[in-house]
Amino acid sequence: LRHGAMRQTVARQAKKGDLGATLIIDRDTVRDPFPHYERIRAQGRIVRSALTLTTVDHEVTQTVLRSPDFIVSMRMPENAPSLLQALMKVGGSYPLGPAEPPSLLSSDPPDHTRMRKLVTRSFSAKAIAALRGRTEEIATGLLDEMTATAGRNGRRADVIGDYAALLPATVIAEMLGAPTSMREQFLRWGEGGAYSLDMGLTYGQFRRSEKDIDALTDWMLGHFETLRRNPGDDILSSLVQAHDEEEGKLADDELLSIAMLLLAAGFETTVNLIGNGTRLLLEHPDQRARLAAEPELWPNAVEEILRYESPVQRTGRVAGADTEVCGIPVRRGSLIITHLGGANRDPAVFPEPGRFDVAREGADRHVSFSSGIHYCLGAALAKMEGEVGLRALFERFPDMRADGLPELRGTRVLRGYRSLPVRLDRAP
Ligand code: HEM
């Protein structure tokens, strides 16, 4: 009941033209948030809505994300409007959802610094470069399977279910010492888990999310026991060891939280990079032809895909003190929503931001991986997987074309497709 009433109030705010509320509730903005970002941009660098402060400005976004005045642990602003408090708590909280405390995503220094240090090395550029060969092998294997399945299915395939979801899920399963036979199950749990990042859910979405996170938590606790009995050279074996060896290094709930975040981030985000990239290249045959002729452009193309269709559309911070951003005063306790997908279309940084150009100079100035101390730990991994995955797909199927409409996932923070039907052969 409380949930239904809350949604109605947010809906009323949205009807009144409150831009922040609209992005939380309105279905059309899930499908296509970009015109909405432009409405916010036209109103100012920081726009005050009934619930939050909102920005799509590149400089403001970067300043907020890099500033020690803005924190993540004070999730509930002390002086927040009661409606916002209800929104953020709706139906209870998500114990151990990927972004709930003590997640890295919701910890400030010094806890954040201590926890992040335990996993940084496994995701360094050097560590990720060493995984490229294996990622190419996995991609080749999946494309072989996709060819075989499509052969029995009139040359039809679903890029998401048959490929884009499986590639990062297989890589992260191997990195975490989890059996790859679990990857389909991880993906099913991940679908509900992804809702936990959004605000203003329907009751059904909330229940699904809670159930999936519970199931994943149970599995993870069992996995720790397996790794204790039989440690490998994977990341989780070393985390379990760090936890068991030295008291104070990593608490029980911190170990579980990092493990859940790595797993969820591993299979929930890069799928969208590969899926969004596939759709963009199918829609822009000139850009696709350019990559076929100049394959050295692939790394830049991945940056442009990340900029143009950010797989994570937004994040937020709370002002821990009275402060100012780019000359605009912000009161302690204010929640500011930074729309990464909107900042990536800021014409002050990206000329003609609505043009998709795989050779764009400065495409890598996007904020799709955030900025500052929470800058995505998996950025090097995601970019490597995106490049290997997309290039292998388009080189294997040079005649691939869209076959019907893709279906969006329907989540707001994460932007990507649930299915992307294609035909692998040439048009008749
Ligand atoms: C943090 C995006 C892939 C692990 C973040 C944040 C963003 C992001 C925006 C920061 C949120 C904030 O500042 O509030 C992405 C995108 C990806 C991707 C767009 C793929 C295209 C991955 C992968 C992993 C990963 C593959 C690892 C398996 C993490 C972790 C954090 C994080 C652990 C928390 C870092 C911290 O709080 O210190 N990611 N991510 N990400 N990401 Fe990623």
Automatic annotation (TrEMBL):
PROSITE patterns: CYTOCHROME_P450. The keyword Iron applies. Gene3D superfamilies: Cytochrome P450. Keywords: Heme, Iron, Metal-binding, Monooxygenase, Oxidoreductase. One of its GO terms (molecular function) is iron ion binding. One of its GO terms (biological process) is cholesterol catabolic process. It comes from the Bacteria. Belongs to the cytochrome P450 family. PANTHER family: BIOTIN BIOSYNTHESIS CYTOCHROME P450, P450, PUTATIVE (EUROFUNG)-RELATED. This is Cytochrome P450. It comes from Pseudonocardia endophytica.
